[in-house]
Amino acid sequence: MTVTTLTPTATLPADWRDFFALTKPRVMRSVVFTALCGMLAAPVQLPFVLGFTAILCIAMAAGAAGALNQWYESDIDALMKRTANRPLPAGKMERETALQFGVGLGVFSVLLMGMAIGLVAAALLATSILFYVLVYTVGLKRRTPQNIVIGGAAGAFPPLIGWVAATGSISTLPLLMFAIIFLWTPPHSWALALLIRDDYAKGGVPMLPVVASARTTRWQMLFYAVLMAAAALSPWALGLAGATYGIIAAVTSAIFLGLTAWVVVQRAATPPEMKAERFLFVYSIGYILAIFATLAIDRLTA
């Protein structure tokens, strides 16, 4: 699959807002939130200063991964309407600057985590950066429609890192938190991909709706949504969370499954407004926040 590279004719001076945009702040907020929930759900609570430092390191690592992602994908970002105004395709920054910023931020975050928290947390943090950049961005995204399935592991690391930062070890609950995000990522991402299929096609990104039918994509969304719901209920079923979490997880997961089923039963291959996909995409964001917030509160008040 050939991708045309568009290079701006001039580079404008970058300011702090361009560097901030490189970190993908919307993604970073989700990363920080789920990492904090993982930390709060742990049986050991860090002192405030250490906890803040751990979350800061995770935020910086997420920003580094975002910057390196944009450095590598500046060519396809220039082709897609959704990403054309990012600092690199918009000509506001040199690619080398983005590379140096991403590498520097990533190295600093891992070193600080290692010195302040411990080697296990630092190793996991480094693994999450490398997985997102090397496995997902470089190895998968342009090569396979399963990019978001395997690559979803990158976004599932934060609660695991938060837990390890607090405890120094890995146990069943943080692995379930990892699994919830991992299984949530395909239906969440493919709902968006169905909405902006033409944009991905223009950029040469083989997202599932680009290389397969909308019907195939929708059935796969339902498959992962069922697995996600099972993972979300597992902390309660295994006695790792209380009844309040179990009820909220059951209700919110049932709504998620209902919306995904609505996506599947649409008769037209590409409905003009795609209301079901829009509802599911928006709801999926609130769903993951609700699940993790409820789990953290449940554990804190147990």
Written description of the protein model:
- Keywords: Cell membrane, Heme biosynthesis, Membrane, Transferase, Transmembrane, Transmembrane helix.
- Pathway: Porphyrin-containing compound metabolism; heme O biosynthesis; heme O from protoheme: step 1/1.
- One of its GO terms (molecular function) is protoheme IX farnesyltransferase activity.
- This is Protoheme IX farnesyltransferase.
- It is found in: Cell membrane.
- The chain folds into 2 domains: 16-147, Orthogonal Bundle (Tetracycline Repressor, domain 2), CATH 1.10.357; 171-302, Four Helix Bundle (Hemerythrin (Met), subunit A).
- It has helices at 16-22, 25-41, 48-72, 74-77, 95-116, 119-140, 147-167, 172-195, 197-203, 208-211, 214-237, 243-265, 275-301.
- It is mostly helical.
- It has 13 helices and no strands.
